[in-house]
Amino acid sequence: MSENPIDLDLERARLGDLEAFRVLVERHSRDVFALAFRMTRCADDADDVVQETFMKAWRKLPDFEARAAFGSWLYRIATNCSYDLLRRRSRRLHRETPLEVSAAGEVDQISAPAGLSPEGRLDIRRDFDRELGRALEDLTGAERTAFVLRHIEERSVAEIGELLGMKTNAAKQTVFRAVRKVRNHLSPLMEATR
Question: Who has greater pLDDT, 46 or 154?
């Protein structure tokens, strides 16, 4: 039975091989950036999170337990780096220009009125994405993280709890609060499209 090349790169990186770690960075950086961008809603911040994530991963790689999936471990680091950045940002009360983000899941149930042109449908979708972005900005760091992980990244509540360092019930409540706040923010737009 031959070894998986991913495992070989990981094992070599754990032994200090920078080239093997570079391969891991190339393999996972796009997913880490996507998560960081969804959470921070700013490309520059997402780039910072990616850099911080891989720096922390390199430093902690000797402690990585191979029984866990490397991607999940890296995702946890990226989530924590993004969450830390959001907390620092809220302390500074610095607001970024809203970027558009689209969510999947129960909050993303908006429909265009019948007979609307494709352009009209696109306008409604853009309005929804813009308002969703604004709603996410009003969430706490934990709520935004939980919302993004659940409804955009489609992670389980148990995973969210693990990533945020909280019990499953607390994670479920955080997701619930986030969804309720987002729904309240979006309700005028959803009413207008009925």
Answer: 46
pLDDT value, residue 92: 54
CA 48 – CA 125 distance, rounded (Å): 30
pLDDT band at 5 (very low <50, low <70, confident <90, very high): low
- The closest alpha carbon to 123, from 19, 193, 50, belongs to 193
* CATH classification code of 98-194: 1.10.10.10
- The architecture in CATH of the region 1-97 reads Orthogonal Bundle (1.10)
pLDDT of 53 higher than 90 = yes
> What is the domain partition of the chain in residue ranges?
1-97, 98-194
- On whether the CB atoms of residues 101 and 136 are closer than 8 A, the answer is yes
Tell me the backbone φ, ψ of residue 54, rounded to 5 degrees: -75, -30
* pLDDT higher than 90, residue 100: no
Q: Assign 120 a pLDDT band (cuts: 50, 70, 90).
A: low
Alpha-carbon distance values, 52 to 73, 87, 89, 163, 194 (Å): 14, 15, 16, 17, 44
DSSP string, 117-172: -HHHHHHHHHHHHHHHHHHHHTS-HHHHHHHIIIIIS---HHHHHHHHTS-HHHHH
